[in-house]
Structure of Ion channel:
Amino acid sequence: MWGSLYLGICFVIEIILLVWCTLSIAHLGARFRHWTRGLRTAGIITLSLAFIVLAHTLQVWLWAGVWIWYDVLSDWNEALYFSLVTYTTVGYGDVVLGSGLRIFAAFAAVAGLLAFGLSTAYLVAIMTRLFEGRMPR
C-alpha cells in the first residue's frame, strides 16, 4: 500500500511538471516567434528537457527521503545513490535492502519506468509537432 502511495505521488509530480512545461511553452511561444526556426526548436526542446530532468530529480529525491525518513538507509548520499540506481532500474546490487522492503523498493523502479516512458512520449509528441510537415516526404 505504501509503495502505491509513493508511486502515486511520483505520478502527480510528473504530470504537474509536464503540464507546467506545456503551459510554459505556450506562454513563451510569443517570445520564441522572432527567433529563427532552429533557435525556436532548440529553445522548446531545451525547456522540455529541463522540466523532464526536474521531474525525475524530484522523484529520486522523494524516494531518497523515504529511505531516510523510515531509517532504511543511514545517510543522504547512500539514499540518493540507492534511489537513483533503483529509479533508473540499473540496480547495481551493492546496496541491498532487507527482504521486507524489497517489494516497496520495487515501486521506486516502477515509478522510474513509468516516468521515463511518459517523458519519452512527451518528448516524441513535442518533437513531432516541431518537425511536422518539415521533414522530406
Remarks:
- The CA atoms of residues 69 and 95 lie 17 Å apart.
- Helices lie at 2-32, 37-69, 76-87, 102-131.
- The radius of gyration is 18 Å.
- The domain at 2-131 is CATH 1.10.287 (Helix Hairpins).
